[in-house]
Amino acid sequence: MSNTSLIFAGGLAPSDATLLAVRKIGQVDLVIAADSGLHTAQKLGLMTDVVIGDMDSVDANALAEAESHGAKIIRHNADKNFTDTHAALLYAAEHGAQSIVVVTAGGGRLDHQLGVIAAMFDPLLKQLQIKALWDNSEIFALQGSATCEFAAKVDDIVGLQAFSATATGISTTGLRWKLANESLLSHETRGVSNEAIENHVIISVSSGQLLVIHQHKNREK
Q1: 137-221: what CATH class?
Q2: Strands in the chain per DSSP E
């Protein structure tokens, strides 16, 4: 079985749809809170193993409670050149994670939202399965060669976007507009608004970075 780490990003509180998806996750081996992501973990009643960040937004009482229950506190200087979520991702990788699930509302600001996605494509994470739960969507960061597969409902929206200059050898199963060993350039938008036609979707890429966004059409927000 894969070693799974669950990371709670800071920023805005995740939606009810995101929290519901978290509750459905099976075995988790390591729970990491990135700064104020601790608030979400505690809201769900989860024991946090590690809190990491510059601690500029986490409630002091919440942090003290986590520490009293055995959480490891890793403080970074506020004057740093990486995000707390990025630090949490690298910590999980360094401690044996094979699969990482990021729980996020995107952080509010656009640069924070893009930063979450960018961090998921760190080359140091290439061999891992990286996914984010974000509102009514799940987001996969594929660095080729890599494959993701997920359960879907017919008419769910599935978007594909190259996150490197080119993503090559893209093949799909279960989508309305099928790709068979094709390439996407970073500026192309033809991967947007594809649709699931089956209840099981498989997407693979041979090389490059591919962002996969699966949006659940009927999930409660």
Answers
A1: alpha beta
A2: 4-8, 30-34, 50-53, 72-75, 99-104, 129-134, 137-143, 146-151, 157-162, 166-173, 182-185, 194-195, 200-205, 209-215
Q: How far apart are the first and last CA of the chain?
A: 31
State the pLDDT at residue 220.
46
pTM value? Answer: 0.93
Quick: pLDDT tens for 141-161: 999 999 999 999 999 999 999
Domain ranges of the chain: 1-135, 137-221
CA pair distance 100, 7, nearest whole angstrom? 7
**How far apart, in Å, are the Cα atoms of 129 and each of 21, 52, 67, 121, 175?**
17, 21, 29, 11, 21
1-135 and 137-221, same CATH topology: yes
In angstroms, the CA 208 to CA 221 distance is: 32
pLDDT score of 11: 87
CATH architecture of 1-135: 3-Layer(aba) Sandwich (3.40)
Which pLDDT belongs to residue 3?
A: 95
All residue ranges of the chain with pLDDT < 70 are 1-2, 107, 218-221
- Of 44, 39, 47, 46, nearest in space to 13 by CA: 39
Q: What is the DSSP letter of 125?
A: G
